[in-house]
Amino acid sequence: MCGEANPQEKQPEELIREVPMASGPYFYISGSNGAGLVSIYCQSRGWQRIYDNRRQDYALKWCEIKCRETYYHFKEGEQLLYQIPNNSVLTSKTGLLSCLREQERVMKKISRTLKKEGTKLLKMEEFFPESFRLDLKEERNAFFELCKEEEMWICKPSCSNQGRGIFLLKNPEAVTTLQAKLYSSEGDLPRKRVPCGASHTRIVQRYIDQPLLLEGKKFDVRSYLLIACTAPYVLFFAQGYVRLTCGNYDATSDDLTVHLTNQYVQKKNSLYSQLKDETVWQMEHFNSYINEKFGKTNGLPQDWVFTVFTKRMQQIMLQCFLAAKHKLDRKLGYFDLIGCDFLIDENFKVWLLEMNANPALHTNCKVLRDIIPSIIYESLDLVLEIFTKCLKGQNVLPLKTLCRFVLLYNEDAADLGQKQPRKLSTRSCTGRYLRPHTDSTGHFRYSPAKAAGLSPGAQLLQKKECLAAYKRQSASCPNHTARATV
């Protein structure tokens, strides 16, 4: 399955069959990505963690690795499950490319209708680098025919993550070498699609070799797309952070740490231990830097980052979702958090690099410790509130738990003039695994009584995390009062 964080094969506690003393609700977590924060959130609501992945009476299941059996036994309208089963239509390189191309073909056919309705969709060339699939013979040949000049391309596995398997094609000789390897190792690949995990399922993209630089370093921006509900679809945008390389950018360099910004790659740089905190910026820091260094000289409006750039990211995210919407599996209880990576070139054009399933939710530096907890907590707040409203047949809006996230799409409200899909009948959807101890307000809060089953150290950590998160939220969000009590 596609993803970004590095999942563990099996946790030791998963080998232990544990029956909690309390009556639930129960939650199950597999892997380490975001596990601590998700656990704190659930325990603060009085939920009990279970460690047997065969149990089917969970209220929430959060897994890094998708398992067919989990989806087979999933109880729609009664449980919450992290990751849409076929999110690869958005988060694999070939999946996203195929969806966007299909959308582009449809747009050309109905362009007059879209103009009459005032619907504005971007062309692929406006936000997505030119790309070719190497698993399709026709596209392979087209790419090899095109690459006759000194141009830079980047080759990526379709379903890999953390920079694994990525390499640059910096000249025709490198392209010729790739062509020879493809034909010698795989033979003449058929035109049909190849399974996501196949080694030769790759794309090549035109490399943006003139990126905007921050203090001489290449960077990209990680933002988040929360699919809080799939029946109906409800989507949100969340600001993330800026990722920078350790070393200064040099287009001619063969060092991947100069070209790829993710932390997994940057750790391979000898300077990483010294510069770790400098490789991640808050969006506020980024905005101030752009205002000061580029605002006047490039004729940018004040706070370009939080106005023009943010609006563009939201527009691109929504368009990508709409391109894949009809392909995604949807059941009440499915939700997903997708990491979206954007690059800005020296002309301030915004490019989507990729969309990642299971984005890294680690807190290994100061900026991430400030950002990631609130991303997880508000995501789960929104998922729970919307799920509960759907069960009760209530309108999704207004949302009590909406704080820093921005509503991108509410299927109940509008769908670009398209016919609304059949609504899910909730007669048999009881949400029974969520009912005990559920906070009716939907807000995440710390409760000493509910934490009584934790060790003293875990209780202290939980309290600190909860209070810190709520202080940050209450300071910036008028709708989100700090309800944590000690």
UniProtKB/TrEMBL annotation:
InterPro entries, A to Z: TTL/TTLL_fam, TTLL10
One MF annotation (Gene Ontology) recorded for this entry: protein-glycine ligase activity, elongating
SUPFAM superfamilies: Glutathione synthetase ATP-binding domain-like (SSF56059)
Domain of life of the source: Eukaryota
PROSITE patterns: TTL
Protein name: Tubulin tyrosine ligase like 10
High-level lineage: Eukaryota, Metazoa, Chordata, Craniata, Vertebrata
